[in-house]
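pasting for ref
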Amino acid sequence: MRCFTVLGPSQTGKSTVVEKLGSLEGTPRKSNSPYGLNLTEFIFGNEAWCALDAPGPNEALAHAQQALLASDACILCVSPAPEEAVLAAPYLRIVEASGTPCILFVNRMDEPRGRLRDVIAALQDYASHTLLLRQIPIREGDRIIGSCDLISERAWRYREGQPSALIAIPESTAEREHEARTELLEYLSEFDDWLLEELIEDREPSSDALYAISSRVLRENRIIPVLIGAASHGNGMMRLMKALRHEAPPVGILRQRLAHAGTVDEGKLAAVSFHAYHRQNVGKTVLVRALGEGLRQGASLGGSSLGAVQSLANGRSNSPVLPAPGDVFATVKSDHLPVPSLLTSGAVVAPPEWTEPPTPMLERILVPASERDENKLSETLAKLSETDRGLKVLQEEGTGAQLVRAQGPVHLRDLCRTLADVFHISVTDRTPSPTYRETIAKPSEVHYRHRKQTGGAGQFADVKLSIHPNERGQGFTFGETVKGGAVPRNYFPAVEAGAREAMEKGPLGFEVIDVGVTLLDGQHHSVDSSEHAFRTASKMGVRQAFSEGSTVLMQPIFRTEFHIPSAYSGSLVQIVAALNGQVLGFDRDEAAKGWDIFRALVPGGALEDLARSLRSATQGIGYFSKTFDHFEELYGKEADAIVKAREKSGTAH
């Protein structure tokens, strides 16, 4: 079986392309994943094929990446509008990072929205590989009525619902065809000495020789050939499928590529797991592509026994037929197989780094509808994070509530639907609170005496403390300058422990940071003094100093790193400034042509608005990662509102 992925932005007709390709020589068999990855099995040219239709939204980019892990080649569908080229930037990025041979298909050419050369020029801004036209459109006024193949120099006129008709190259197209063909041959000659010599000697190379060179160049992932068509009318589908059949590499090349990327012995690499999902009453289903011989139910794969091997189309056992190298199959009761991963018989190998999805930006607390589902929710989210690498599961600081990081609102909605439909857990979501702190603005001294008399031994401790602000980031410090044994040394740890307890919650209701406490003097009683008494005196004394002094609210500041197409870099300055952030600068992303890495410091309370503004400004393409940098003072109405909200909720984060 040969396998390819069809990917690209939403509304570029990917699913229609797969449907038309699968129906060229028969009736395809389809299967769907809850995550939007659709699989189509079909026969073409007496060969078995599997098309992986990757979901289009940027929030599902992780599933497209994983599909590439199992693909011999891919088709990248793009819009015929030059201004929409930027929407393909994330897909060009992952295709090139993966090393997957790619054919770029400009779909919906029946909608004239710009010149093809302008589309390719705009896309080239985001591709390190040369985008090389293999076809040009034939126009009749504003309509595109056919295409001309630049290798065979044959022209085809589209016919609705029928195969295209062979025609002579129109005179109006001849000059453009000659120009584009010359450019094609010059690029191909860079990878073939024979062709270069033919061109120098002004000899016309044969079509068969050119097709052979094109096939080799694609298999070696040297260029990205560009084909055109309109899948909704069936235009260009046969040419696209023939290009895949003759030029896409066999499964053995994929095995070599993955073994090299994963530093695995090629001879031991048996399979790759690339997708998984949970089904009600079935459990975890893992999709696997065989790369070697000998896979069957009970065989050792990934260090344990492979579960039931099932057909993709109907979910029935495939046990009579053993998966051959290249076959794609589903397996259940194989929970030991992580996704994605490279698999030998005895081990699981981590996938290449390029499969790491974009950092999720949307944070939400999930609250189960019933208390009995709280433990179940935690276990279920852990399971789902194993099948969805774009999802991160944590716990909220202070409350321990379930915190999820999703790629965006659509991703979050799908997660909640899966929890309800598959696991019968209804949840609501809320925005997590930023982690605020407080500190003191000026030093003070306090004298506190703790005295308590009961029926037995009493409690007595007398402390004189100095409380002062520390430098930012220094945290809590403790010291003592007691002379003459006024407070015995064995009580010093108790005094420090009491001061630390007082730091747990200040007058504003938040943890106190960056404060130093010094024990200056005190008194003790030979009978009634104890560690407990001095601990209590210290805690109450520090709290008294806090209440008498001026405490300041501290907000968290995060160092953010944005990954965005260069066209959007300018808009980020205004976004960060509007959120009271500080721009640190940007650099070109050396790993992805046409992308920038933009850095800024942003208040924690603004991250939610930042994610929303970034999605809007970059059409959902840009994303950012964040790391805590420091706390800084926050004053005025904003600080007052945060304190009042904390008092109203009765909790501090």
